[in-house]
Specification:
This is 4-deoxy-L-threo-5-hexosulose-uronate ketol-isomerase. By secondary structure, the protein is mostly beta strands. Helices cover 4% and strands 44% of the residues.
Length: 278
């Protein structure tokens, strides 16, 4: 297991970043390595992003040095979405079968979390987000049928999409973590438009199902001072709370959004009118 630390930055500081530093600070280029656990610990809301790719053997999630904890969930909660083949997550001896695009919430206080694939020829890929937690909530599998589903946008504005709210307050209780998955319809490329900020929550986007040879341009920064990061399949990007988070691809794609902060109200956002973006 490897765990990398990323530090927070102010809007004034990032004005001096070039492309190379922007990618170094915000882009998570490689999350899935065979039979490894890759974690990135962000100082924005102490948010952890990770990829677990068990192929030939099960992998147990341990506390990285950054936590100064005896076990990973000693003071944290965990959200998992499987973006690969069928897999199993064993939580303190209880097994959860997690299929493609299904989610699992694991509450604070669970000591042993082990990930495995059903078939090494079609291994699971467990994408995870984790945040500090103050209360123990029960673990729960969230299937596509359990999700709160909303369809937004139109083909005319190239943002026709389905939002699957998987780990949110309207589906199950959490301390602060929220996760969901947005699937763009064929012919649509824009996500999260109109753009917005939410100063009481940070966010991480994970892009997948980006076709071979295609890319997604992720937009970030203050509404009056936007920047961009070109991203490939199965990469993630950290979005500061003061930043917009939006993207456009050269094809339709799917992305997972994860949020953390002091507010569980999904609708708490400050919308930026599209003509006002700079």
């Amino acid at each position: 297991m490897t765990a990398e630390t990323r530090y927070a930055a102010s809007p004034a500081e990032v004005l001096r970043w070039n492309t190379e530093q922007t990618r170094k600070e915000l882009l998570i280029e490689k999350l899935f390595v065979q039979d490894e656990i890759k974690l990135v610990y962000s100082h924005y809301d102490r948010f952890v992003t990770g990829g677990i790719f068990p192929v030939s053997k099960p992998l147990q999630l341990m506390a990285p040095d950054q936590f100064k904890a005896q076990y990973f969930l000693e003071r944290r909660e965990l959200g998992i979405i499987n973006v690969g083949g069928a897999g199993t997550v064993k939580v303190d001896g209880e097994s959860f079968e997690v299929a493609f695009k299904e989610a699992l919430y694991v509450g604070k206080g669970k000591k042993e979390v082990i990930f495995s694939s059903k078939d090494a020829a079609a291994p699971a890929k467990f994408y995870l987000n984790s945040t500090p937690a103050h209360h123990e909530f029960p673990s729960r599998l969230v299937t596509r049928q359990d999700a709160e589903v909303v369809t937004l946008g139109t083909p005319e504005t190239s943002n026709h999409r389905t939002i699957n709210k998987l780990i949110v307050a309207s589906v199950l209780p959490t301390c602060q973590l929220q996760m969901g998955m947005t699937e763009l319809k064929t012919g649509s490329v824009w996500n999260t438009m109109p753009a917005h900020t939410h100063d009481r929550r940070m966010e991480v986007y994970f892009y997948f199902e980006v076709p071979q040879g295609q890319s997604v341009c992720h937009f970030w920064g203050q509404p009056q001072e936007t920047r961009h990061i070109w991203m490939q399949n199965e990469q993630a990007v950290i979005s500061p709370p003061w930043s917009i988070h939006s993207g456009a691809g050269t094809s339709n794609y799917t992305f997972i959004w994860g949020m953390a902060g002091e507010n569980l109200d999904y609708g708490d956002m400050d919308v930026c009118a599209t003509p006002d973006l700079r």
